[in-house]
Amino acid sequence: MKAIEITQAGEMKMVVREMPQTGAEDILLKLSYVGLCGSDLSTYLGKNPLVQFPRIPGHEISAVIESVGAEVPATFQPGQQVTVVPYTNCGECSSCKQKRFNACRYNQTLGVQRDGAMAEYLAVPWQKVLADEQLSAVQLALVEPLTVGFHAVDNGKVTDSDTVVIFGCGMIGSGAIVRAHLRGAKVVAVDIDDSKLEVAKRLGADHVVNSKSQNLHEELQKMTGGHGPSVVVEAAGSPFTYQAAIEEVSFAGRVVCIGYAGSDISFATKLWVQKELEILGSRNANPSDFEAVIKYLKSGKLDENLLVSKIIAPEDVPAAVQDWSENHGKILKILVQF
């Protein structure tokens, strides 16, 4: 079968791989669309320490069931449209014992610690497959990236009494904007790209701030009556936004961190104590987040064209990723159509 492989940092090409081997509890999938994620870009650039080369990227999946193993439940049948939960969990570590499977100590994500879905076929355990005939193939490919922002908002315990600031209006931040809006919160989106801020408005942001051209502190103070936002979601992975999150959040506020910064960051630690902040990490997503995103997409409230920057063929992936690495500011989601 054809597959896209990152052979080493800065090098990606089409290769031919053997068809996946399937066991009794496995489902063989024929891929429809696979999304390119920021983690795939980091892998391509050689910045992901969890990856060993060569690696097939891809964990944002839309597919059709090709065949099922002998012990797969009868609810799964060839021809069904599906998406996939791309993480593993051991069931025994401290996270798993608390049913926080998304933070499993030994997690292996498709396309990161193990080969991913950027190929014609993929075999996965049936327990990781979610079938849904109401969603389109494109919508199914958007489920997983939206779940990460949904999960962050859940971690932040956001309610309709909160003002939530979201730093970074990429795909992950977009999911956080949607979820916070659905919770009834006042949502403020912050980015340095006006086109992404326009999308943020259409996704439910009540206010937007371009932190490059506007005074972020002054704008947030005006919006919150001088208190600062009660919740900040950091989805940009920038030293500036990490520092701003601590500085701008209200006293007794919550900060939820999703983004990976490329370097260590210095904080005014007195603010943690004086404000009595809750500072939380947020990783991947749980089954409940997948259910929530699927329910949202079924509502018809999202025009997926807002989030899909382009759809490309597999043979165009190397050039597209190279271009993305040089001009990543305008891209929300690239889908590869198999």
TrEMBL record:
The keyword Oxidoreductase applies. Residues 172-298 form the Alcohol dehydrogenase-like C-terminal domain. It comes from the Bacteria. Keywords: Oxidoreductase. GO terms for molecular function: oxidoreductase activity. Residues 24-130 form the Alcohol dehydrogenase-like N-terminal domain. It comes from Sunxiuqinia dokdonensis. This is Sorbitol dehydrogenase. The keyword Cytoplasm does not apply.
